[in-house]
Amino acid sequence: MDKLSPITLAATGCTLIVTSVAVYKVFFSGSKDSSTASKEVVEEVEDTRPKLNIYFGSQTGTAEGLCRVVEREGKERGFNCEVIDLEDWEEDSHEEFIKNAKKAACNVFLMATYGEGEPTDNASQFIKLLKSETDDFEFPHTVFGLGNTQYEFYNAMGKLLDKKLSGEKLVPYGEGDDDKNLEEDFENWKDGVFWDGIGGLAGPSEESNAKPENANKVVWGKSAPTPTPNPSTKFYFDAKSSTITVNREILADTSKGANSTKHIEVTLPKGMKYNTADNAGILPHNPKALVNSLIAHLGFDGSATFSLSGSGEYKSIFPTPSTVHSTLTKYVDLLAPPRRSDLKLLAKYAPEGLSKDMLVRLSSKEGKQEYEDKILKSYVGIATLLTKKCTDIKLSFEDLINVAPRLQPRYYTISSSSSVHPKSLHMTVAVTKGVNSESGDKYVGVCSGHLAETSECDMFVKESSFKLPSDSTPIIMVGPGTGIAPMRALMQERVNRKAKGRNVLFFGCRKKNEDWLYREEMEEWVDKGNMELHLAFSREQKEKVYVQNVMENKGELIKDLVANQGAWVYVCGATRMGADVVKALKFVVGDAKVKDMQDKGELIQELWA
Ligand SMILES: Cc1cc2nc3c(=O)[nH]c(=O)nc-3n(C[C@H](O)[C@H](O)[C@H](O)COP(=O)(O)O)c2cc1C
Fold first, then answer.
1. 418 CB near ligand 1 (under 6 Å)
2. Which amino acid residue places its CA nearest to atom 9 of ligand 1?
3. Are residues 30 and 66 in the same domain?
4. Pair (158, 182) in one structural domain
5. In angstroms, what is the span from residue 415 Cα to ligand 1's centroid?
6. Distance 115 CA to ligand 1 centre (A)
7. Is the ipTM of this complex over 0.85?
């Protein structure tokens, strides 16, 4: 069966229903062949419910998770819902998707923006098609964009879709800002605009208190075959176990404000390659103690092996066979605070009582403040919720993997050149540490904490936007803090290639003797005439000085390099710094030149909020 078959069926308005009601069993008494003594006749039953297609463009799972909320509520409102990963919408399948969309009562797109105003990986082919074949995209629709105002191209993908899709716009475009409260923005749009606008297409809402059917079924034992990977969690299937050979602290002084920054070198597993300054995707592991306490609390057998299955042409959410312990370590996000919609779902699994009341309250509009105090600010993940706060909820293992969010990979820009280090890759990892404001417990970031302690990690490589120009073209690199990672890689590459173009680095940190990363390497490049270095120590003097301030002071140099010599500019680090750097660049070379560089790919930024 090709991967579009379920959609093709749905598009005809018919669904194959294989339930105890719709399946007719025919018994042949006295049959010669005992294997055919019982035969199932599967009848095609017309699904008369209005079709609601729910598409997601998602990089880190938020849009996908919100699609599941729309799906659950849509079913309760009498829609025939289908959640569609935009990864599947490509040139070959385009016609089928258009047909399916035209037949639906509504097509809702939840679209995140990634990179610098770019599509998420799973939506890149779809966006390419949308940009090239505009006439075709005509069907009833609405769009909700997921973005973050800290980025220059806020919600670029949501806005693009809203502009390019034609056909009836059933409800106005909505968008959410992850810098503030994206879930609240989404709820306001969903409850105040979306259902109001399309609710009339189906019956009135009938909110169900029953727990939904699990889409991912656990089959205990080792024998079940490994099904096709689900594209939204393909990274679990692509990752390979890699050995960490170097794990070294590179902060000169860890006793002050800065926590810990590790220089990590990983041996490339067989068959894995990278290009200079690509991204390393790391699959974090949940802390052992947390996994063990959850297993003990819920009474699971950690060593039990299982596989997954599901209806239709099932696509597995993680590789199986797996054990309970390994699954809770690698695939289930036990630490991240659940969204309010997750709590609402979890309430359906709770027995009548205090926990259920609390979950219903926290997930309601009135409970917003309590949710922020008790869950978000206190950083309560699903493991703590189940073992300490709602101890009467005894989820089965199958329920748990269906309710809990998936553990997402974390991306680090590789800090080595692939031509200098073809057999290993380097990462520069700031270890996130803090103290829980409510409990006073210390916590460590799930991925950086894992990397800081382990001698092995599950890893894959993803292309980044960092590309070098010709060897004679000058480059300007702006990489304060761990934003130095790709700049170190680019420098290694340029020196190895004996590139003639000038290399100019703007680096910033708090203090010279505290957190100047890779100081010896930088000084060596400067001594050998490979690099010009401009430093910004923010706390060495009374006035704070940042890289953007130093750039403005060096305006003449930058202007000459960019305007007269065609220099490329690279920026890596926090979004706020990135915005200030672009502002400084505009101040020095003018808005039009910066726009031109962006269009030509000569201003390359990788920023995180
Ligand atoms: C590396 C990175 C780049 C991003 N770039 C943008 C951007 O250019 N514009 C924007 O509005 N939001 C941007 N965002 C914010 C995401 O779109 C937002 O957090 C969204 O909720 C993520 O949804 P997802 O989890 O479904 O991928 C970026 C986020 C990350 C991590």
1. no
2. 154
3. no
4. yes
5. 23
6. 7
7. yes
Same domain for 588 and 600, yes or no, is: yes
Domain end marker among 158, 173, 201: 201
Atom number in ligand 1 closest to CA 113: 17
Q: Is the CB of 153 under 6 A from ligand 1?
A: yes
| Residue nearest (by alpha carbon) to ligand 1 atom 21 | 146
Q: Is the CB of 111 under 6 A from ligand 1?
A: no
Ligand 1 pocket member 574 (CB < 6 A): no
Q: How much distance in Å is there from the Cα of 553 to the middle of ligand 1?
A: 32
User: What is the DSSP code string of 348-384?
Assistant: TTSPTTHHHHHHHHHTSGGGHHHHIIIIITTT--HHH
Q: Ligand 1, from 151, 159, 576, 607: best to mutate by most atoms within 8 Å of Cβ?
A: 151
CATH number at residue 140: 3.40.50.360
**Same domain assignment for residues 599 and 508:** yes
Shared domain check, 69 and 82: yes
Q: Residue of the nearest CA to atom 27 in ligand 1?
A: 59
Question: Residue 401: inside a domain, yes or no?
Answer: no
What is the rounded distance in angstroms from the CA atom of residue 455 to the CA atom of residue 245? 7
User: Is residue 354 a part of any domain in this protein?
Assistant: no
Q: Measuring from atom 17 of ligand 1, which residue has the nearest CA? A: 147
| Close Cβ partners of 524 (under 8 Å, ≥ 6 residues apart) | none
Does residue 244 lie in a domain region?
no
The CATH number linked to 494 is 3.40.50.80
Same domain flag for 22 and 97: no
Domain that holds residue 146: 49-201
Give the whole-angstrom CA distance, residue 105 versus residue 395: 36
| Domain end among 201, 217, 252 | 201
What are the per-10-residue average pLDDT scores of the chain (609 residues)? 30 28 26 37 68 96 94 92 94 94 97 95 95 84 97 96 95 97 95 90 75 92 80 93 97 78 97 96 96 98 96 91 97 94 94 95 94 90 95 96 95 97 97 75 86 94 95 98 98 98 98 96 98 97 96 97 97 97 97 96 95
Give the side-chain half-sphere CA count within 13 A for 308: 26
Residue range 275-323, pLDDT digits in tens: 999 999 999 999 999 999 999 999 999 999 999 999 888 999 999 999 9
The atom of ligand 1 lying closest to the CA of 58 is 26
Q: Is 352 a member of any domain? A: no
Check whether residue 64 and residue 196 sit in a common domain.
yes
The pair of three-digit structure tokens given for residue 6, joined into one six-digit string: 């379920």
The total number of structural domains in the chain stands at: 3
Q: Nearest Cα to 263, choosing from 276, 249, 277, 274?
A: 249
CB 227 within 8 A of CB 314: yes
* 196 & 53 share domain: yes
* Residue 486 phi, psi dihedral angles, 5° rounding: -70, -25
* Angular region, 577: left φ>0, alpha ψ -120 to 50, beta rest: alpha
